[in-house]
Each structure stands twice: as C-alpha cells, then as structure tokens.
Specification:
The chain folds into 2 domains: 57 residues; 58 residues. The chain is elongated. By secondary structure, the chain is an all-alpha fold. Helix 3 runs antiparallel to helix 4. It is built from 4 helices and no strands.
Length: 116
Amino acid sequence: MHGEWIPITMFISLAVVAGLVLYFKYKTKHEVQETVRSALDKGQELSPELLDKLGDALPSPKSDLRRGIMSITIGLAIGAFAYLLGEEDAQGPLLAISAFPVLIGVAYLGLHKFGK
C-alpha cells in the first residue's frame, strides 16, 4: 500500500509546482497591467523608457532556442543515466521518460526555426 503513494505524490507535486508557476506568472502580468492602467487613469504620461522596460518583459526571440536545447539536454541526461545505471529493468522506462523532454526540445527548436 505504501509503495502506491510514491508515484501519486510525485504527480501531485509536479501538478502543484506547475500550477504555482502559472499562477505567479499570471499575477505578475496582472499587476503590471494594473499599474499601467492606474497611471493612465491618473493622467500620467508613460515615458519611452518605461515602455521599453515593459517590452523587455516579453520573452526574447532566443528563448525557444534555449528551452529547446535545455529540454534535449535533460532528455539525453536521463537516457545516459538509464544506460549508466546498468539495470535492464530500469532502462526501458527511463528511456521512455527521456523521450518526453527530447521531443519537447525538438518542438521548441522547430518553433525557433519556423515561428517568427
């Protein structure tokens, strides 16, 4: 019975972490919009420097390239771990798990190359 809780806890933890990341990204963007909106409502003029700084908050064009390289590297590291572990029973599942970040990395590289 106790062995069943390990994967359940892992997937719940991953979902909680992903949810928190998404929530805080949303909260940050919302606060920036509220600040700009309140400044405009009060009649304050937005300087070009401020608009440039707000534009810097957007992801850079190289972010897809970086994410793709990092995802592929993580997948290759998991695959290398599977082979270095030396256990036949663990190699298949670990290689299957490593396929996910590799394919996500390939998708990011495709977005970098073709998505302008």
